[in-house]
Design brief:
Layout (H helix, E strand, L loop, with lengths): L2 H24 L3 E7 L7 E6 L4 E7 L4 E6 L8 E8 L2 E9 H4 L8 E6 L4 E5 L4 E5 L5
Parallel strand pairs: 1-7
Antiparallel strand pairs: 1-4, 2-3, 2-5, 5-6, 7-8, 8-9
The chain binds 2-acetamido-2-deoxy-beta-D-glucopyranose (NAG).
């Protein structure tokens, strides 16, 4: 590469990084996707809410998904929590939490979750697996 080509690449990378920084500061839209991975032919009933929004009750057949979009609050923090029900079990989980999903190194724009009988697991772009697993809320 010539010196000028190196300059162009460096400037391009710099502008690109700056733009993605600005996007994450101003909080563009995010999507949460939830997939029923309970197995055993179980249906998953879920009900997600935030402080201000009630996203209603959804019923997911095995292996099917539902998603919602939102813009994280510019000031303050955004939190969506869901109740998950199947075969007599009921669990709560914070499906989107700015502290976990936006501020950390592991932030997601498409936050994709598999729900199985042990726990919710988020897709990890660095491993390409659903291996970011968390306990249900206490
Ligand atoms: C749920 O998914 C996690 C991550 O893939 C896995 O380690 C765990 O064994 C699964 N549990 C069940 C009951 O399938």
């Amino acid at each position: 590469m010539t010196k000028w080509e190196v300059y162009v690449v460096v400037i391009f990378l710099f502008v690109h990084l700056a733009a993605s920084r600005v996007e994450s500061i101003f909080g563009e839209g995010r999507t949460v996707k939830i997939t029923n991975k309970l197995g055993g032919g179980l249906k998953l009933t879920l009900h997600c809410k935030s402080k201000d929004d009630d996203l209603g009750v959804q019923t997911l057949a095995p292996d099917s998904s539902w998603s919602f979009k939102f813009k994280p609050a510019f000031f303050g923090t955004t939190l969506f929590f869901c109740n998950f029900n199947w075969g007599g079990e009921s669990h709560w989980f914070d499906i989107y939490d700015d502290d976990r999903d936006r501020v950390s190194d592991n932030q997601c724009y498409l936050c994709s979750w598999n729900i199985n009988r042990s726990y919710p697991c988020r897709f990890d772009e660095s491993t390409n697996r659903f291996d970011l697993c968390y306990d249900w809320n206490k």
